[in-house]
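Subject: Interface between my chains keeps coming out wrong

I've been trying for a while to get a sensible model of this assembly. When I model each chain on its own everything looks fine, but I need the whole thing in one frame so I can look at the contacts. Pasting all components below, labels as-is. Any help appreciated, I'm running out of ideas.
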Amino acid sequence: DIQMTQSPSSLSASVGDRVTITCQASQDISNYLNWYQQKPGKAPKLLIYDASNLETGVPSRFSGSGSGTDFTFTISSLQPEDIATYYCQQYDNLPPIFGGGTKVEIK
Amino acid sequence: QITLKESGPTLVKPTQTLTLTCTFSGFSLSTSGVGVGWIRQPPGKALEWLALIYWDDDKRYSPSLKSRLTITKDTSKNQVVLTMTNMDPVDTATYYCAHSRGGVFDYWGQGTLVTVSS
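Reply #2:
Try treating it as a single job with all components included. I did that and got this:
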């Protein structure tokens, strides 16, 4: 199976800060990488698909980049409502593997 | 508008079989390219994919759980059913079903918490 290594596992930032999360695949997955946001007690929500495509309705402060094995998820200006855990997920090969998650908190 | 909702028991005993139903609306599971998957999340832990069924009845399973899982669909009822045999306390988790477009889980159910305990 492909392994997905997400970092950091948690971070604390101030409102307005730029926040960056990375996800590394154990092998080349092209751009078959998605990012999800999960707020406490809620189901995950798709934010970014195919590494860099913003899902309809998602604020433009969220973005993704990368291809191959290294990917980055960015919140350009952290807002209070962005407090959540973020997961990457590869789907180049089955099984679709999720990263370990990054918990984002407000400082 | 696509919606999905999971239903099933909230408590099962060790060694029992769990049966979960995902009832959906807003799409057809006979449409080319469409799939429905099951993902679970133990309390405080990460997401784990379990199974996926496609519009053409192709079925895929997590390699580590394959021997315990069965996924089926009833297109006429807009339902997908997941069964997991020989339940253990480590299977305690929130179980989600989700609409899949080519491996992208773009719509999720609210999830159902299943506790395994005697």
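Reply #3:
Confirming on my end. The longest strand of chain B covers residues 93-101.
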